[in-house]
Write a structure and sequence with these properties.
The chain is an alpha/beta fold and 217 residues long. The chain has two domains: 6-87, Methyltransferase, Methionine Synthase (B12-binding Domains), Chain A, domain 1 (Orthogonal Bundle), CATH 1.10.1240.10; 96-216, 3-Layer(aba) Sandwich (Rossmann fold), CATH 3.40.50.280. The protein is built from nine helices and five strands. Helix 7 links the parallel strand 3 and strand 4. Helix 3 (37-58) packs antiparallel against helix 4 (63-87). The radius of gyration is 18 Å and the shape is globular. It starts with 5 loop residues before the first helix and ends with a helix.
Amino acid sequence: MLLVPETLQQLKQAIKDLNDVRAKELTQKALAEGISPLLVIEQGLADPLREIGEMFGRGDVFLTDLVAGAAAMEAAMEIVGPAIEKSGEKRVSKGKLVIGTVEGDIHDIGKNIVSSMIKANGFDVYDLGKDVPCSRFAEKTKEVNPGVVGASALLTSTLPKQEDLVKLLAANGLREKVKVIVGGAPASSAWAQKINADGYAPDAAQAVDLVKKLFRA
């Protein structure tokens, strides 16, 4: 069994403690010590966020804990990202996913959690942010050729944008190449089926499971 460097153990604990400031400090320290950026991501950042996600799935922690854990990981990723590019190291990706909150909707907390959790599970995530036009989803899909596109809608008034996205991907000849998943308070499995999406997830933990399932399909 390989020993985890002390700094990475401390970093892992900082993520579990939901301490983004401490996480950034320890990420910088780990890189200064010459620890591989990929190791920093996998053992120091992704591992603890996966643990928090599993705890949330069991009902052992609150949504606020998951939000804070994801924020701590993303804060540290801002530091380790450039270090990866500089080192030339490449993380083995399990697949690519494009995600965003649909046009007209500025709610992104749930989408951000899903994005971080999927990233922590080894996938490349292209997060388009919030208030994203369907055309932007299509453009990014053409650009990076993802296996899955995820669209979030938190408002009933913006829910139809998810259907518009499915139709636009089909019109652009992209629908057969990509799976589409939807989420958000007004969405449901019945809605996903109605608009010919490939799945719906009510929370981050189930979104990770769904993405894994679709990439195995």
